[in-house]
Amino acid sequence: MGPNNKNQVNSKLLNKKYFAEQYVDNSSSAIIAIDLNEKVVIYNQAAEDIMGLPASEVLGRPFVELLEKKTGTQDSILLNTLRTGRPYSHVEAAIETPIGTMNVMAYTTLVRDENDNIIGGILSIRDITSQKQLEEKIVKAEKFSVIGELAAGIAHEVRNPLTSVKGFLQLLGRKFNEDKQISQYINIMLGEISRINHIISEFLLLARPTVPIKRKANIHEVLDEILLLTEGELLIKNIKLIRRYDESCPALTVDTDQIKQVFLNLVSNAIAAMPHGGQLTVTTRYDSLESAVHLFFEDCGVGIEPAKLDLIFDPFFTTKEEGTGLGLTVSYRIIENHGGKIEVLSNPGEGSTFIVTLPVKDGRAAQVG
Fold it and tell me: What pTM was estimated for this model as a whole?
């Protein structure tokens, strides 16, 4: 091979190495490679971000040390790939990162030399958090659709006989109004019928959500109306109320009746979570970059178990003995119809924080006083 051909080959190899290094360094996926001694030889910037450990502490070190620091275990698909010769693909996992829990998709592959001998393994971790959130939204939408079809099919069939029963009970109540025991029974039955009607109303809201009738509103005034309604119960339950309002919050364009329903449900849930008293903190915060107002309802109650945290917005899921399991589902739908979102943070025994985010439709809106 002549000098020119050698130079061309070397140039191609250098270019190939250069482009490979550029790909690894700039990839949005975390890329970690180990050699036959199971020591880390490649660890890009995305790996630093996801793992929360700098390359200086990882490169040249046994990969198992990285595992133990991050997971407390030596089990790894990368090590299994190198030891068994079997790559993995489409392995989903939830991992803790410096910025919170991240949903990832992991892949492994073997590295071979020119003689097809295995010389190492590569682990690639791709962030799919946004994709998983979208999938969850689709699943929720499908649940709402199923509930809607069910509600539309049975609501009137249930309400019609209930109306007749209620009417006859009211007539009986007039006839036996002097018999205290019978009157008491009748009032209990009428109360239960009203409760069933309330459940059906919430059911129908999921089936045919009312289109919000929006107008400009001072969100602090809306909050204060709800907090005033619950003032007596807060006092009886020995719950201290703290308001932390951001006075720079602009007025929002909302359906005040629907938003009141959401706030009342969140406050009621907070009260129920503190049967022995405590503190409820209601905070507002304006995010000008996001052009949204965040509202925080923070209690110091019993909290929610991690296994139940993903279920609380599902229809009919409730932790209350007298709950219907529709309150948070309806609240979720209302906030969604306003272009916002509702989230929850909670730890058992440490309380819960519900976060409602509402968009500011008009950036020129007047300031809330």
Answer: 0.52
